[in-house]
């Protein structure tokens, strides 16, 4: 049986995310597992959540989709419509949604609030193939090198400060 490796892209970052938030008193996240079915040399999600993590940060419901890239831009083509729609529904229901991106080349992490993702995605869909609309430059958002800072940055972006 041959399984497409693209089904596991981002797995390393997801594991880093889990380690970064583990044991924090002010946040709790659960990894949303998917059942993957191999077919014709590829793997397809059969069922499960389209979002990688759902949790709570200091009483605020938070959804996070993790992605890995090898440069300083995130191609919007890497965000499937069902993941986008799930993040949008979560945000509209009163939670906070984020796209978390790991730049493997520079060993940097970025957190992009869903409002920014939504606007860029809308422009991307309206301007297919046009230069400047197909990706998000990660340096425009919160960029950090230390994954252990992730929970406090998430908390700050979600709307509350951590008490010392």
From TrEMBL:
Cofactor field: Mg(2+)
Family: Belongs to the RecU family.
Keyword set includes Membrane: no
Keywords: Cytoplasm, DNA damage, DNA recombination, DNA repair, Endonuclease, Hydrolase, Magnesium, Metal-binding, Nuclease
Protein name: Holliday junction resolvase RecU
Superkingdom to which the source organism belongs: Bacteria
Location of this chain's protein in the cell: Cytoplasm
